[in-house]
Structure prediction request, 321 residues.
Amino acid sequence: MRRVRYHEFGGPEVLTVEEAAVPVPGDGQVLIRVEAVGVNFVDTWFRRGGEGIFRRPLPGRPTGDVVGVITEVGPGVGPELVGRRVAALAEDAYAEFVLADAGWLAEVPAGLTVADAVMLPMAAPVALRVLRSAGVRPGESVLVHAAAGGIGHLIVQLARELGAGVVAGAASGGKLEFVRSLGADLAVDYGLPDWPQRVREAAPAGVDVVLDAVGGDVLRQALGLLAPFGRAVVYGAAAGGADEVPVASLFALRTVTGFNLTAWRLFAPEAAREEMSEVAALFARGRIRTAVSAELPLEEAATAHKLMEERSHTGRLLLRP
Prediction:
């Protein structure tokens, strides 16, 4: 089979297509013939050889949200799973066949598109959980950063489903019309210096909730836009500054919470599985949808990473083996 790995840290060009044997599922695992892979931004950090939680050993095995059909099961897994179309968050995901943990498979509802299916194991559950972690209520205002991205564009739609008003932040002006089309009440380009003022004009008393996966200066400025008793949930740090939360900004009775899907699965597994089923039902009913920026062959994984780093895409990028 073909797979993509990297054997040195660096730019997108280090991603290499290579031939390998089809892996054999171990205890509690299934083997999936891959239909498509959803590319995640965090893998660009791993590929560059980031520090701390962004450091992974070589050879690099890109992660991804895969959708496909189970062809084989390992010990401890029921044989009735063979032939089912599922989605899963997997390592070594840029490949024609991947291994996945049978305990965290998302069964794909009949008729669901591949674009929506790749959102079931990770992106959509994260979008739903960060909104719930913030306790968003009808009529509240929610400031969503990276709103045109793979997770952000789902948060915009889910926030509207909850009856909230949405201020959508994006990194370039070209993405503003996209987030408006998803239901955002206001779109701001946080690449411009006056973006906080635009938010203040729309919400003079402050926004009730900030949902942030950018970090750095964008997060610091956003915390200052929170209303008294406002809540922020941080679930990423694409711009860095993950260790820098200005404590003084919290003295106005604001709170900041962090979210990580791996920890959520570890400490609240039943709730995590229930929410995977919930988002699958929302997609099946057409309540939310996935926007796909590009579908690329596996051999163009480097192009996918380049697009991710340029922040030129909207919605999701897919690889097709």
The longest helix spans residues 269-284.
